[in-house]
Amino acid sequence: LNQLQLSQLDYNRDIILGKNFPTIKLVGAYLYTTYQKTEIFSENSRAWSIQVQLTIPLFSGFSSTHERSLLASQDTQLRIARKELENTLNLKEVTSLKNLQTSESSLISSESAVRLAEEAQAEGNRLYKLSQIDLLQFLSVQQNALQAKSSLNQLKFQSILAYVNYFVASGQSLTRLVDILVEG
Q1: How far is it, in rounded angstroms, from Cα 112 to Cα 151?
Q2: Which of the listed residues 5, 23, 99, 120 has the most CB atoms within 10 Å of its CB?
Q3: Interval 61-77: pLDDT, tens
């Protein structure tokens, strides 16, 4: 959009400043000068003339200077807006990459926590069968394992969102991401 605005400004510059340039015209006239009906087709009653007309705008210097400064100002504003847009897109890409990396490291630690919770649940089942822990302790171990699995699933979802945000920010195709996620 910004590139389109810049090219439109260049086009408008030519139009706006064009009225301050000298112009040259070729003006022609073909006349019938007769007062009687019988002389309509006579060679003496027809006349033609051709002129070359050069127009140089003398007093447009001040207005053209003002128009040039306005156009230069618009050009500068559009270039600054373009730079800001590029900076914003780069910031979004870097931010989404950092969020993705954070999500991946959280996912790894959560998978480790789920493995430990499953081991604790297996040990709790064994101890409960041997009647070394009561029902409240057994349920607490199972609840901790369930919370660890739930937190892992939530982190997987957040990881997928982080991947989506990164792919969008970096301009990559989301179909490629879908293919990656389907593969595992």
Answers
A1: 12
A2: 99
A3: 677 777 888 888 988 99
